[in-house]
Amino acid sequence: MCAIKILIVLYKKTIRESESCSSLIKLSEYCRNCITDLYVWNNSPFFIPEEEKILLNKCFLNSHVNYFEDKKNHPLSTVYNKIISLNDSNGGLLILDHDSTFGDSYIEELLFSFEKFPDINLFLPQITYNGVLVSPAKQYYFYGKCIKKILPGVVSTRFLTAINSGMFIRCKYLKEQFQGYNEKIKFYGTDNDFMYKYSKQNKFAYILNSSLNHTLNYYEDITVESKVRRYKDVKNGILVQMESINKMLVVLARAYLFIYECKMNVKFKTLSFFI
Q: CA-CA distances (angstroms) from residue 124 to 51, 79, 95, 136, 152?
């Protein structure tokens, strides 16, 4: 049985409030022997209550449970690189945001697929949001597009992207081939950056039949200010990644983003999206 190492990044949620933690706790009886390491990275402006740490520790007595917290919101690229540096090349690393919901079939299929396809380094769940498949998706450099339906199994990585949460990555690849996350990309865009680099080194990934429910905060922001703040990070991620690929792509991306900004400014009757 492969060793599963899990990273959960919390933000303004405790362990009890986190959908991802709740899903894991419910599955603790089933998967406690295959989860060797559990990393809980708390990006919240508060510490995790000690009683909640005790609860999680009791659920995973056979695992090394590690907590990282200092009341600072560290960039995801920094968090991911740090956790990769702490691991060896055995098993796989499962990345989870705090707001993903899944069942035992997800872990079961991960274990089965990981062993059945030793030459595949990336395993992706199907992620839905409001009933729509949002991951995996197609990413043509700076332009993303949802896929209406995707069949489980081995797929080409050409122009393939996926949401960070739910990715199961073979540690041997992370330790021996992956160049690391670009730390100029803070939050939004870390997934596209990883998927582009992965596609350059791996022709195939595996799409699981299992689904995972996930909240997309970018589409749930209520105020214009919060939408602008998130868009600023999205724009930075796109431009930094395009700069690392081809400078001409930066020019095209800026033109594409300018059109998007015009549309958003008209929609919300503001000029705030010109950033």
A: 33, 20, 11, 7, 9
DSSP state of 218: G
Q: In sequence order, what are the beta bridge partners of 101?
A: 213
User: CA-CA distance, 230 to 214, in Å (whole number)?
Assistant: 18
Domain 4-214 indexed as CATH 3.40.50.2300: no
Beta bridge partners of 4: 35, 92
CA distances, 202 to each of 7, 16, 154, 205 (Å): 23, 37, 12, 8
**In whole numbers, what is the pLDDT of the chain averaged over residues?**
94
Q: How far is CA 196 from CA 7, 89, 161, 200, 211, in A?
A: 21, 21, 7, 7, 23
Helix axes 50-59, 19-26, angle to 10 degrees: 40
Measured distance CA(149)–CA(159) in Å, rounded: 16
Which candidate, 132, 124, 171, places its Cα nearest to that of 151?
124
For 189-227, how does the pLDDT look when each residue is reduced to its tens digit (9 = 90+)? 999 999 999 999 999 999 999 988 887 765 666 789 999
Alpha carbon distance 142, 211 (integer Å):
26
Beta pairing class for 137-140 and 4-10: unpaired
DSSP state, residue 166: T
Contact 202, 118 (CB under 8 A): no
